[in-house]
Design goal:
The complex is a heterodimer of chains A (438) and B (289). Chain A is an alpha+beta fold and 438 residues long. Helix content of chain A is 35%, strand content 23%. Chain B is built from nine helices and 13 strands. Classes of the chains: A alpha+beta (438), B alpha/beta (289).
Chain lengths: 438, 289
């Protein structure tokens, strides 16, 4: 049982709190400094990784997720999306002050990075919107903000639904310690998060939602409303093929009402084929021109900081090639998986991709053909290299598996260095990188 | 001896009329696999590579006495194909398909627990017992029959390690690619349990990668339940947190779980040597024999 508890605790660590309580604490109530009984969402703690081409989920913006949550009946604060300072001020006047101005970018730590401000009047709102719109937030340019009514609150809760991959089952999570860094809660006091595994054939039974809510010591006056939100959050998770749905914090007002102050809806990429409405929301959000290019080519690509460019087939073998570059004293510049069954053109594109990285001083091409054929790979390498008068960076090629012999006959060995083993190829590429770098 | 498959295994190919399905049916038969039927809705009565095609898996099992299936069905229809396979008396289902929605696999895994069928995959290269049968897309020519079992989350890394073994004359009893997805059928532990029970398997090579905790759980199993020696390789030591390395399952979350370090430490603590390179894994295996 301990193992399961720990695993489930860790499973939410990827999605820590978007908000941190700001203000003065009196007992277990928190009052913001400038406006009593009004929450100041500030989003100070978050280690969420940014959306990238190689991620397996599509992350919706907060305002998109909130719209979907609200349509499903989860109470959310009144809000408006604004793309200019004037629009933001109009929104503030309509909503009534104070309001929160929140950068809509798919990265965590918005508050800490200055992406969330509180405004008490037109001037403050104008200043906040002017500062946030156009700002660079961890590589992303902010082009829209959510202007949102601040909410009176007495408690902040955490609700989440995700897949426990170890169990192969969904798990719902509830904590009365929302708002603070849920990562810390999960690691230091995992018992403060009530968890309930769900049989995917039946979905979340109402009793399970109640069990989780009462198990998390949610105040009695709010328990019924929280249970209802949790049930809806699970239904949204299931109906949208989500990898995660999360509300942190779910605010409890003095009347015992609940309001979702943030909303997370991340969708399984592999299921987008049956969610055309969600697929339409997908945006390019590369922080890096090379990752954008990899996205256009359709490669699994991750840019790293070293100078040895790496191309291979199959995730495990490419990872291994990276590890060996490191093991033999080099530094990998990237992860690039051409996938299975790549034709010559794709192989040539991969080389173009790696040559486009100015950090790359040397390239290792490691193919172990299963459904990928050595002759196609050799043709692709020839095509890519024959267009150069001079090869930009030394390329080491190691071909094994299906049609490797045919590939070696085709390969123009005047343009590349050939090695028979993985270990030999990596060592040579590392040596080349050292030589070029000097 | 071998695990899961041998030359008696009677195979039905689900999705046999597709490009991948027909090509690999031919490859499997060339290797000597006993492919007895195909199953594709609406294609009953056709013949592919000399193999009769049925509309349903049930018919294929009834008419051709199939006891294993290989699934090449596209991701949108793959879960249904797996439910269909699990609704028959098949002993083994091998799912090659990549990109099956995770929630679909959660439901399949739930159904799987109610059956006596073993599922390998999805998103895997399949399984091979050298010289007898292969179910999947592995290149048969790099394998050789022998005394070493191999289990891996990655296809091409399997080939690499097999190559390191075969090239120094070390053959394999059975090699299994269990797949790189977050939710899979046969786990490391399931495969290790079978290798432990197999009299011919004298050592096991295990190839893990970052993400999840399957390797850590396998380490505990090896320490407590296995006499057969195991050597391991873990891919992804240099992977930065939060970046998915190709496989949906190969991601290290911000908290540091699923890292190569934690897996290597768990395996070392279980007495399992972990090679820094695939060649070193072969060295360890050679020492065991």
């Amino acid at each position: 049982m301990t193992l399961i508890t720990e695993r489930a605790a860790r499973s939410i660590v990827k999605y820590p709190a978007r908000y941190k309580k700001v203000g003065l604490a009196f007992g277990d109530r928190v009052f913001p400094v400038s406006a009593p009984n009004v929450i100041h969402p500030t989003d100070t703690t978050n280690s969420c990784s940014p959306k990238m081409s190689a991620d397996s989920t599509m992350k919706l913006h907060e305002y998109q997720a909130k719209r979907i949550f609200a349509e499903a009946g989860i109470p959310t604060p009144d809000s408006r999306l604004a793309t200019s300072v004037d629009e933001a001020v109009d929104a503030g006047r309509d909503l009534g002050y104070p309001v929160a101005v929140k950068a809509q970018v798919q990265v965590g730590g918005r508050g800490k990075a200055g992406g969330i401000e509180i405004a008490g009047d037109d001037d403050e709102l104008r200043d906040a919107a002017d500062a946030i719109l156009g700002m660079d937030l961890k590589g992303y340019t902010v082009d829209r903000v959510l202007v949102e009514s601040a909410v009176d609150f007495v408690d902040e809760l955490y609700l989440g639904v995700t897949m426990d991959r170890g169990e192969g089952e969904p798990v719902v999570m509830v904590s009365s310690e929302g708002g603070v860094d849920i990562e810390t809660v999960a690691e230091e006091t995992p018992e403060a998060i009530a968890r309930e595994h769900v049989d995917p054939a039946f979905g979340l039974h109402p009793y399970q939602a109640r069990k989780a809510v009462y198990g998390a010591d949610i105040p009695d006056d709010a328990a019924r409303a929280v249970t209802s939100v949790l049930q809806t959050l699970y239904d949204l998770w299931e109906s949208n093929d989500a990898s995660e749905t999360e509300i942190n914090p779910l605010m409890v007002t003095s009347e015992g009402d609940v309001v979702a102050a943030d909303a997370v809806l991340n969708v399984d990429d592999d299921a987008l084929f049956r969610h055309s409405d969600l697929a339409e929301l997908e945006e390019e959000s590369y922080t890096d021109d090379l990752e954008r290019k990899a996205g256009e080519y359709g490669f699994d690509y991750v840019r790293l900081s070293g100078n040895v460019g790496i191309i291979g087939n199959g995730a495990g073998l490419v990872m291994t090639t990276l590890d060996l570059v490191d093991y033999y004293g080099g530094a990998p510049a990237n992860f690039l998986d051409i996938g299975g069954g790549a034709k010559a053109e794709r192989v040539a594109n991969a080389l173009d991709m790696v040559f486009s990285d100015p950090n790359v001083d040397s390239v290792v091409f490691n193919i172990f053909g299963g459904i990928t054929r050595g002759d196609e790979v050799a043709r692709g390498i020839n095509d890519a290299l024959e267009q150069f008068d001079e090869i930009p960076k030394p390329v080491v090629v190691r071909l094994a598996g299906t049609n490797a012999t045919e590939g070696m006959e085709i390969l123009n060995t005047e343009l590349v260095q050939v090695e028979e083993t993985l270990e030999g190829a990596v060592q040579r590429a590392v040596a080349n990188a050292e030589e070029v770098a000097e | 001896m071998s695990i899961f498959v041998n030359d008696d295994t009677r195979v039905v190919v689900q999705g046999i009329t597709g490009g991948e399905g027909s090509f690999h049916t031919q490859q499997m038969m060339e290797y000597g696999t006993n492919v007895v039927a195909g199953a594709v809705p609406g294609k009953g009565g056709e013949v592919v590579e000399g193999v009769p095609v049925y509309d349903t898996v049930h018919e294929a099992v009834r008419h051709e006495d199939a006891d294993a299936s290989v699934v090449f069905v596209p991701p949108a229809f793959a879960a249904d194909a797996l439910f269909e396979a699990l609704d028959t008396s098949l002993d083994l289902v091998v799912a090659i398909t990549e990109g099956i929605p995770t929630q679909d696999m959660s439901k399949v895994a739930r159904r799987l627990r109610e059956t006596d069928t073993a599922l390998i995959g999805p998103n895997c290269p399949g399984i091979i017992t050298p010289g007898e049968a292969k179910l999947g897309i592995l290149p048969g020519n790099i394998f050789d029959d022998g005394k070493v079992g191999l289990v891996s989350r990655s296809g091409t890394l399997t080939y690499q390690v097999v190559d390191n073994l075969t090239s120094r004359g070390i053959g394999q009893t059975t090699a299994i690619g269990i797949g790189g997805d977050p939710i899979i059928g046969t786990s490391f532990i399931d495969a290790l349990e079978r290798f432990e029970a197999d009299e011919e398997t004298e050592a096991v090579a295990m190839c893990g990668e970052i993400g999840g905790e399957d390797e850590e759980e396998a380490a505990e199993f090896i320490a407590t339940e296995m006499d057969t020696p195991v050597a391991a390789f873990i891919a992804g030591r240099t992977a930065p947190p939060g970046k998915r390395m190709g496989h949906a399952g190969a991601i290290v979350s911000g908290s540091g779980t699923g890292t190569a370090e934690s897996k290597i430490e768990a395996l070392n603590n279980a007495g399992v040597p972990v090679g820094d390179t695939p060649e070193q894994v072969a060295d360890h295996i050679e020492d065991f024999l």
